[in-house]
Amino acid sequence: MVDLKGQYAKIKGEVDQAILDVLETTAFINGKQVTDFSRNLSVYLGIDNVIPCANGTDALQIALMGLGLEPGDEVITPSFTFIATTEVVALLRLKPVFADVDPKTFCMDPASLEKQITNKTRAVVPVHLYGQSAPMKEIMDLADKYGLKVVEDNAQAIGSDYTYPDGKKYKTGTIGTVGTTSFFPSKNLGAYGDGGALFTRDNLLAENFRMIANHGQKKRYYHEIIGCNSRLDSIQAAILNIKLPLLDEYISKRRIAADFYDHAFAGHPKIRTPYRASYTRHVFHQYTLILEGADRNKLNEYLAAKNVPSMIYYPVPAHRQNMFASFQSGMQQLEVTDWLTERVISLPMHTELDTEQLGFICNSVLEFLN
Ligand SMILES: *Cc1c(COP(=O)(O)O)cnc(C)c1O
């Protein structure tokens, strides 16, 4: 699904040197590279506060910890997402409530979101799934109307943007109260290990998040609030400093691969290619098809036999996971989520796909369907 080796080969000299530099200084934790990366990312995103942390799941957890929610408060997330988005809600003894998604964008459907809002709802976590922004204007309008905090899960869409109807444009993750991301190796901006970050325009919140990620302390050994230990290490930051300037080039390579796929599958009666909302630039963390009138599990097997990887993201939506059984979330009616869960399949998507590979993948898919 990804070709991390091919991507590394092109930047090997720089990356190896940057790692050696960290080894020389032995500042493995909170080295200069971490401060530099936070500043570089803050410039890239156009936001004052970037708080690095250990991974994207921690970023979500720290975000929710820092918002001052009380046990039992309701937090609305999509069910059609990676489990981390909702897992942290339950972990913090908050109550996960699920909204359905839009069948075109795969992102949170504002109408379903509004239906799930009660007088206990405190926060909403839209996910920019597969690399495409959720409809942020509608979500922010509802958040304003009902006084909700907004945590944007930007783990799959770093570098994407959202344009308001009046033309104002923001990077995804910088619109809500706080945005979070992951630098897991296969993400669009991937480290060579774990990493994550939070972003916010609110300086007080930023200070809170920083303290939480550092055992609740501002001054060493004086712990003001309950926190955790969540750090981006210097080696990962050094690698990210090299990859961040390449992110836009990586995104355009993904978009070129997506165009190739779109073109090959255009008009096929059994394939729905990814919808591209006009308010955003899709950064194609995943290239995900909807198959109709064909068994996507059989396609998955057919491709595997030809050494073409494909994946189902995600085979079980959050509201049907056993971990949430006590919330009776499986009783919830999420028609679009359930419908999509049966029909989506993702094809290889990364920065190193060449036309020969893409052609072979497309032909293999078409062979199976014809
Ligand atoms: C990857 C991912 C996360 C979690 O990131 P980790 O760094 O693996 O903890 C959270 N949400 C979404 C949507 C993701 O894709």
What does this structure look like?
The chain is an alpha/beta fold. The protein folds into two domains: 4-99 and 106-245, Aspartate Aminotransferase, domain 2; 247-369, Aspartate Aminotransferase, domain 1, CATH 3.90.1150. It has helices at residues 4-25, 32-45, 56-66, 84-91, 110-116, 136-146, 203-212, 234-243, 247-265, 296-305, 335-343, 355-369, and strands spanning 49-53, 74-78, 95-99, 121-124, 149-153, 161-163, 169-171, 178-182, 196-200, 217-219, 222-223, 271-272, 287-291, 344-347. The strands form four sheets. The protein has a seven-stranded mixed sheet, sandwiched between helices. It has a three-stranded antiparallel sheet with strand order 12-13-14. It is globular and about 65 Å long. The mean pLDDT is 97. Bound molecules: pyridoxal-5'-phosphate. Pyridoxal-5'-phosphate (PLP) binds at residues 55-57, 81-82, 84-85, 127, 153, 155-156, 182, 184, 194, 196.
A few lines on this structure:
The protein is of the alpha/beta class and 370 residues long. It has helices at residues 4-25, 32-45, 56-66, 84-91, 110-116, 136-146, 203-212, 234-243, 247-265, 296-305, 335-343, 355-369, and strands at 49-53, 74-78, 95-99, 121-124, 149-153, 161-163, 169-171, 178-182, 196-200, 217-219, 222-223, 271-272, 287-291, 344-347. Helix 3 crosses helix 7 (203-212) and helix 9 packs parallel to helix 12 (355-369).
